[in-house]
Amino acid sequence: MELTRRDVLAALGAAGAAGAVGAGALTLSQRDNTGNPVGDHEVATLVAVAGVVYPSEVEGVETFVREYSVARFADRPEYAAGVADAVAALDEYTRTWHDAAFVGLDANAREETLSGMEVDIADPVPEGDHRERVRYYLVNELLYALFSTPTGGELAGIENPQGHPGGTTSYQRGPQ
Amino acid sequence: MQSNREPSERADVCVVGAGPAGGIVADKLASEGYDVVVLEAGPRFDDDEREQRMERSIRPAHGPHSVWEMGGERDAYASTGDRHYPLNAARVKGVGGSTLHWQGMVMRLHEQDFTLESETGVGTDWPVSYDDLRPYYADAEEELGVAGASDNPFAPPRKQPHPLPAFPPSYSDSLFAEACEAVGVTTHSVPNARLSESRNDRSACVGYGTCQPVCPSGAKYDATIHVEQAEQRGARVVDRAPVQRLEHDDAGERVTAAVYATPDGTEHRQEAREFVLAAGGVENPRLLLLSESEQYPDGLANSSGLVGRYFMDHLFAGAGGTLDEPTRQNHVGFNTTESHQFYDREDDSRGAIKLEFLNYAGPSPLEMALSGDDWGDAMLDRIRDGYGTHVAVGALVEQPPKKENQIRLHPERTDDHGNPVPDVVWSVDDQTRRTIKRANEIQHEILTELGADIQWTVGPDATGPAFHHMGTTRMGDNPETSVVDAQLRTHDLANLTIPSSSVFPTGGAMNPTLTIAALALKAANHVAERI
To answer: What is the DSSP letter of B337?
Structure first.
């Protein structure tokens, strides 16, 4: 199932960042990113984490995460700093086992690393320990973005997922 | 944002509280040209932050109190009754009040609610009848923009249709309708205070699915609408200005000033000709009790000794489970079918029951994704297995007024201004327990007919409050047995009005806000007549 630009806008709407989307301003290169703690490395790490936590049926993940990230963090410096700190924590853990940052691992090693860090069973806590912040700022951030979109909702069997202003007709419809 | 928190030099009316009651009174009186000052304990929230509040309400890291910033020393409370009462989950302090997080269901009370003692021997009669309130109900529906239909055979009589068409039934409503018909339960639409069509500058509902606790689109009514309208008509609203006490004249017959604190730590006195206390069923009695004086040693307007007494809420009863077919839940956050068939009481054996057929039974896929201990394909398999076949029937159940249930001042604990915090003393009586059991029987009968695998039941032991604070400054004709009269004016002080659920002598089982709005419109008329 392909994530589209419509899904990017839906995810940003659910995250209260739709206003940060300027006309044609949906790529890193087109924005003045000076001072934003979420830079190329952080976005690449989010894409890498999405490769683990998103279901394999989802397509267009890299474009979705990149475009979403640019607008999502643009006007929220505190939140962006939390994301950057979580990326640093994930990289620090990764380097204790591999001679590379998280983005430098192959797909299997990425999954093993997140599991080894016990991010899957960690509570999402923005001010918590490393694994809790990775869960909150990276994993749950990405899952919130995906499952508040029409495409993410349809994956799970709901055309109008919570957080998405998908109108008031789908609730009246029976199963298709 | 409000920067000047100095009192107004001249005010006709001082309103305490910027929720639906305060907002409507302020708007009505400002529209008639009166100088109105509204003092609100909480902040003015930024509309542009509503999506972020919605995100906080969905993501599991954030507690429910964080959505509207409740808690801390400002909102400290005690709960010392048989049942714990989670007060700060039950209210919002700020411009808009608890309508910021409410569900938005707006039904008129039934005729029998106003004569309960005469008809069943339970509780007490109201000093006003349904016919007295009927025109105010119609106006309140207009003010709140209620979407409803006249298809409810159990509803009290009405002259005109609701201002907006009802939301159509959900797919799961159609499943329930068949089962209900088979067991002899009649269903009907739900009047909602959310726009089914755009109105003035407000959007129709767009289906965010998070009505409770936040509507990002503004389609759900909240009292910021009336507060902002009041300001456009000249009213002045001072936020973060908690009133500490009310002062009265030497004769003890009139309130002279509301003493309020501001964030810089100073206190101010707002004088006015009339005072309207609209801070809800907990803070209303608390403020009166805090305003004790030599003349009123037990609290202002408390000659009856009943300020804070007869605290009531509605109880939740419910049951749910799964079907072996899709039920299409969690597309929207509001309900579209109810049954009021079991509302009116034949005798004193049980109280009123209002049945609700949920459109948000079971977890949403988004919540499941955020709270699991898996990811990727395993997570998706879990979501697909767990979402989509849930059903649930809820109910609001009436609680009769009991003197021992009360809001009182805690003898030791104080808030951020050194004032005793409210102590909620709350218990559930045998009649209410019987009513909850009866609601469960009806719910099980419907779910069984539907073929549901019933997996949970909220009965008399697991029940909790619906967050409708009522009864603590009860209305009546006799000053010895009530706090305010039929004009919502306190028996003791001639210029103090309380338009609130705190004046409800009995609570019925209908969500209270439409009645609050009707009483606010009535009170505004009476205040205007006096000044």
So the answer is: E
Q: What is the pLDDT of residues A65-112, one digit of tens each?
A: 999 998 999 888 999 999 999 999 999 999 999 999 999 999 999 999
Residue A77 domain boundaries: 5-163
Contact B514, B140 (CB under 8 A): yes
C-alpha distance across the termini of chain B, in Å: 30
* ipTM for this prediction: 0.93
The rounded distance, in Å, linking the Cα atoms of A58 and B368 is 18
The CATH class of B9-68+76-146+213-314+401-426+470-531 is: alpha beta
Q: Do B375 and A143 touch (CB under 8 A)?
A: yes
**A4, A60 contact by CB (below 8 A):** yes
Closest Cα in chain B to A148: B366
Asked if domains B9-68+76-146+213-314+401-426+470-531 and B163-190+315-397+428-464 share a fold, the reply is no
Chain A residues with beta carbon closer than 8 angstroms to that of B336: 171
For B125-279, strand residue ranges (E) read 147-148, 164-165, 236-238, 243-248, 255-261, 267-271, 274-277
Domain B163-190+315-397+428-464 CATH class label: alpha beta
Q: Which residues pair with B318 in a beta bridge?
A: B394, B458
Q: Which of A100, A70, A6, A168 is closest to B211 using CA atoms?
A: A168
The total domain count for chain A is 1
Instruction: Please indicate whether, in this complex, the C-beta atoms of A125 and B171 are within 8 angstroms of each other.
Output: no
Q: Per-residue pLDDT tens for B440-478?
A: 999 999 999 999 999 999 999 999 999 999 999 999 999
Give the type of residue at B443: Q
Q: Are A6 and A136 a contacting pair, CB within 8 Å?
A: no
**How far is Cα A141 from Cα A137, in angstroms, rounded to an integer?**
5
The residues spanned by each domain of chain B are 9-68+76-146+213-314+401-426+470-531, 163-190+315-397+428-464
Residue B283's closest CA among B123, B496, B103, B473?
B473
Distance separating alpha carbons of residues B511 and B107, to the nearest angstrom? 7
User: Could you tell me if residue A175 is inside a domain?
Assistant: no
